[in-house]
Amino acid sequence: MKRKLLSLPVLIGAILGYLGIPRLRGARQTSREAIKGQDLAQAYDQVSRLPQFQAIHRMIVRELDQYSPEGTLVDVGSGPGHLLTEIAQVHPFLKLVGVDVSAEMVEAATANARQAGLRQVRFRQGQAQSLPFPDSSVDFVVSSLSLHHWSEPDKALLEIHRILKPGGQMLIFDARRDTRRAFYWATVFARQFLVPGAIKEINEPAGSILASYTPQEVSDMLEASPFHLRSIRSGPAWLFIWARKAW
Ligand SMILES: C[S@@+](CC[C@H](N)C(=O)[O-])C[C@H]1O[C@@H](n2cnc3c(N)ncnc32)[C@H](O)[C@@H]1O
User: Fold this and answer.
1) Is 12 domain-assigned?
2) Is residue 21 one of the residues assigned to a domain?
3) Whose CA is nearest to atom 23 of ligand 1?
4) Ligand 1 contact, 102 CB (< 6 A)
5) Does 48 map to a domain?
6) What's the gap between Cα 72 and its chain centre?
7) Cβ of residue 35 lying under 6 Å from some atom of ligand 1
8) Residue 27 resides in a domain
9) Which of 50, 57, 106, 240 could bond 233 through an S-S bridge, CB–CB 3.0 to 4.6 Å?
């Protein structure tokens, strides 16, 4: 009996230790580029209203506040638009534009913004690797949980650089593939038991972790980009990637 009691804390300790270790870096598995289709857009809209997503979006807004955004802010891969809704509440004087490759997401985001009575927010269809804005016309670019979907991330960084004004800034939030195992297994559990069928079919949210980048890979990507000032802040399961275009 005493031996059994002794082995229980050891077992719990071993499990917690395992969950706390970062995942070994397996090769990146690409995910589908756009979250297209009415069912998928609706399911994602539903899921991204959950408190976990709201907490992520609030964390991004807190990070954004440190960079004092002004003027026009573009969200690349804006999905149903909930990040821009959060930003609009804290920064009512920003002009906000969401861009998404999926027509259904743009439709959902436009309806959500209208319902929330947001006048300073617009959504349009477009791709990260070919953004629908003139050169040097945007003050700030944000993006959340979209980078790992982009088929040509290097080209997307060039595009973001192109549309930013001199001194303009970029803040990208995404998962990291070498996340703590606890986070990875939580997404596997969510995929299996919590998310709607349409999302489960595309292996989300676990697929997002497998498709995301490590801090080193992001660092290499930024190194090859024209951004001269840049930083990567790593959380246990996510990355904040910031860069500024030269004046
Ligand atoms: C996981 S959702 C994230 C949505 C939103 N940013 C959020 O935080 O809830 C990823 C979004 O990126 C969009 N996307 C994927 N590839 C894209 C690309 N190359 N250009 C623009 N949007 C893209 C998808 O259609 C989808 O709406």
Assistant:
1) no
2) no
3) 77
4) yes
5) yes
6) 20
7) yes
8) no
9) 240
Nearest atom in ligand 1 to the alpha carbon of residue 79 is 27
Tokens 């999926």, residue located:
102
What's the total number of domains in the chain?
1
Query: Which has more confidence, 78 or 181?
Result: 78
Reduce the DSSP state of residue 180 to 3 states and report it. strand
In three-state secondary structure terms, 110 is helix
The sheet with strand 95-100 has its strands ordered as 121-125, 95-100, 72-76, 138-144, 164-175, 238-244, 229-234
pLDDT in tens, 198-235: 888 888 888 899 999 999 999 999 999 999 889 999 99
- Cα–Cα distance for residue pair 19/23, rounded to 1 Å: 9
Mutation pick for ligand 1 pocket among 60, 85, 146 (CB with most ligand atoms within 8 Å): 146
Q: Note down the domain range covering 50.
A: 32-244
Burial 83-103 (b: 16+ CB within 10 A, else e): bbbbbbeebeebebbbbbbbe
Cα 33 to Cα 198: distance, rounded to the nearest angstrom: 16
Cα–Cα distance between 97 and 125 in angstroms, integer?
10
- With a 6 Å cutoff on the Cβ, whether 146 touches ligand 1 is yes
Q: What is the CATH number of the domain that holds 149?
A: 3.40.50.150
* Residues forming a β-bridge with 72: 95
Burial of 239 (0-12, 13-18, 19+ CB in 10 A): buried
| Residue with CA at minimum distance from ligand 1 atom 10 | 146
DSSP character string of 147-172:
GGG-S-HHHHHHHHHHHEEEEEEEEE
Q: In the structure, what pLDDT confidence band is assigned to residue 166 with cuts at 50, 70 and 90?
A: very high
The residue whose C-alpha atom lies closest to atom 27 belonging to ligand 1 is: 79
Pocket of ligand 1 contains residue 107 by CB under 6 Å: no
